[in-house]
Amino acid sequence: MALSDSLLILSLALAAEAAFGYPTRLYTAVGHPVTWIGRLIKMLDRTLNREGWSFGRRRGASVLALLALLTVTGLTVSTVEMLLRPLGLAGLVILAILASSLVAQRSLHEHVAAVAQGLREGGLDGGRRAVSMIVGRNPQSLDAAGVSRAAIESLAENFSDGIVAPAFWLGLGGFTGAALYKAANTADSMIGHRTPRHEAFGWATARFDDLVNLPASRLSALLIVAAAALHREASPARAWRAVRRDAPHHRSPNAGWPEAAMAGALGLRLAGPRVYGDVRVEDRWMGDGRAEATADDIDRALALYRTACALLFGLAAGSALLAWIIAR
């Protein structure tokens, strides 16, 4: 697929998803691409992740599972692309509608906004219930400030791997590129954890996900810094300093970049020590501001997020126009 076509699909997909999201009726009727991919991952986990196998053999099986996942996803989606390509502009529009399911601008905003609403209407218990829908850490270990920080951290990290990353691979590799990324990212969220069952079997998925998220995490940080320049109550200079100083010290090679940018822009401290289940993780702090975040800070983060999404759309649309001019 020509670069100009994939960038046009990206622009249309971002606009469609921001406007309409993924309709609840459609999800109820047929599910979502992530749920379809998830079924395949579960099948591979049941088939190839045998408890009686050695650590090395299960790690080898992780490579086989990743290759199988990417092969099935790639063949399926590239076939759809091939069938729609002869339809011209109509085919591109259909592909854009399909691709819009792979980005999550609207749903991420709704889930994070629900945390602020939960804190305001239901107090700490309401905030904990809402934040438990979007983070893996133990919500009972969080006070109100911890709930607010967790929501903002999730917003920053998911801006990168739930929006910018699929957008990046959609623009670069078309619908197939975005679907392959989404398959890898979904697998990482399901089996890429250091649990007794998945420490070996999730190895290939976790490493591959780190690799494919590298460009998007850096771009996400730049978009948040740029968005901060457009908000009176945010600081692009502090955001940039936090990225340069703190991002490389995050335990994830990618999550620290948008989290540090968001922390610096809002004058907060994010990440830091956290509890997952019963395990306390001594992470480094991102940013050097206050740790006592509030529901109002979630609102400020959401405003910054909306601007960053708008900048991403502008970048996609501008790139599509430039690619079209060059191709003429």
Automatic annotation (TrEMBL):
Keyword set includes Repeat: no
Cell compartments where the protein resides: Cell membrane
Membrane topology reported for the UniProt record: Multi-pass membrane protein
Keyword field: Cell membrane, Cobalamin biosynthesis, Membrane, Transmembrane, Transmembrane helix
Transmembrane segments: 61-80, 86-104, 308-327
Chief location bin: membrane
Pathway note: Cofactor biosynthesis; adenosylcobalamin biosynthesis
InterPro entries: Cobalamin_biosynth_CobD/CbiB
Keyword Ligase among UniProt keywords: no
Function noted in UniProt: Converts cobyric acid to cobinamide by the addition of aminopropanol on the F carboxylic group.
Family: Belongs to the CobD/CbiB family.
HAMAP family in UniProt: CobD_CbiB
Protein name in the entry: Cobalamin biosynthesis protein CobD
